[in-house]
């Protein structure tokens, strides 16, 4: 009886170990998530994507139709094959992180922080960096419901020493709730930036205000 129990226990251990071994050996394609520039073909399908390191990849297949012969800034989830082609898993156009939200870019317009009519409600700055000719910003914004409409503006400030942007946020009175993510890419073309120049981003935060300095 003891031998049978020991044998059953040993078999169970071997079976369990085999399951663990099989799970560890299972191949999972590495997934990449980040800002990319997508280029569409004449039919409006995404044909090529370029990451912010300058790497360009042909897209294996993509059924989503956009405007033809156009470039888009996207947050994209994709896998890279051995042939250096990509399969797009998910993609979302930057500026569309808040349901029914509104994005306004006034990068060329100079305004003073706190000017009448512009709200400076707080945000979380999760990430900000220059890449591919854009200032890429990931924000967290508290919303009350999925139907909330917030106005977010990225505006250039009048700073003679360095290129400075700020984030204005009109929360429509909603300062509590759950956090939604908003992805922004502000074009940096036209500012005559040289390598090593400083870009500054300021905004009001929930816990602390932000004054970030980045090297172009």
Sum up the structure in keywords.
OB fold (Dihydrolipoamide Acetyltransferase, E2P), 2 domains, 216 residues, Immunoglobulin-like, disordered N terminus, five-stranded mixed beta barrel, mainly beta, 1 helix, five-stranded mixed sheet
Provide a compact summary of the structure.
This protein is mainly beta and 216 residues long. The protein contains one helix and 13 strands, in the order H-E-E-E-E-E-E-E-E-E-E-E-E-E. It folds into two domains: 31-93, OB fold (Dihydrolipoamide Acetyltransferase, E2P); 102-215, Immunoglobulin-like (Sandwich).
Task: Give me the strand/helix succession.
Answer: HEEEEEEEEEEEEE
SSE-based structural type: mainly beta
Superfamily (CATH H level) name of the largest domain: NigD-like, C-terminal beta sandwich domain
Major beta sheet, specifics? Answer: 5 strands, mixed, barrel
Oligomer: single chain
Low-confidence stretches: 1-26, 96-116
Please report the distance between the alpha carbons of the first and last residues.
75 Å
What percent of residues adopt helix (DSSP H or I)? 10-25%
Mean pLDDT rating:
77
Into how many domains do the coordinates divide?
Answer: 2
Return the CATH topology of the largest domain: Immunoglobulin-like
Question: What topology does this entry show?
Answer:
Elements: H1 2-25, E1 31-40, E2 46-51, E3 56-59, E4 71-80, E5 85-93, E6 102-110, E7 124-131, E8 134-143, E9 151-156, E10 163-170, E11 178-187, E12 198-203, E13 210-215
Parallel strand pairs: 3-5, 6-9, 10-12
Antiparallel strand pairs: 1-2, 1-4, 2-3, 4-5, 7-8, 8-11, 9-10, 12-13
């Amino acid at each position: 009886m003891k031998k049978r129990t020991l044998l059953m226990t040993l078999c169970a251990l071997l079976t369990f170990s085999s399951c663990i071994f099989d799970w560890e050996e299972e191949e999972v394609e590495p997934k990449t998530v980040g800002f990319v520039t997508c280029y569409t073909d004449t039919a409006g399908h995404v044909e090529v994507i370029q990451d912010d390191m300058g790497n360009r990849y042909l897209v294996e297949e993509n059924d989503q139709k956009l405007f033809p012969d156009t470039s888009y800034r996207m947050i994209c989830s994709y896998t890279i094959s051995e042939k250096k082609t990509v399969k797009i898993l998910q993609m979302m156009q930057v500026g569309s992180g808040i349901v029914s939200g509104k994005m306004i870019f006034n990068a060329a317009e100079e305004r003073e922080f706190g000017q009448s009519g512009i709200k400076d409600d707080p945000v979380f700055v999760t990430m900000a960096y220059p890449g591919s000719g854009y200032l890429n910003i990931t924000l967290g914004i508290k919303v009350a419901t999925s139907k909330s409409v917030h106005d977010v503006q990225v505006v250039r400030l009048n700073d003679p020493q360095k290129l400075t942007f700020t984030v204005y946020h009109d929360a429509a009175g909603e300062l509590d709730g759950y956090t939604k993510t908003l992805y922004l890419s502000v074009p940096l073309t036209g500012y005559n930036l040289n390598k090593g120049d400083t870009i500054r981003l300021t905004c009001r935060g929930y816990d602390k205000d932000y004054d970030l300095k980045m090297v172009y």
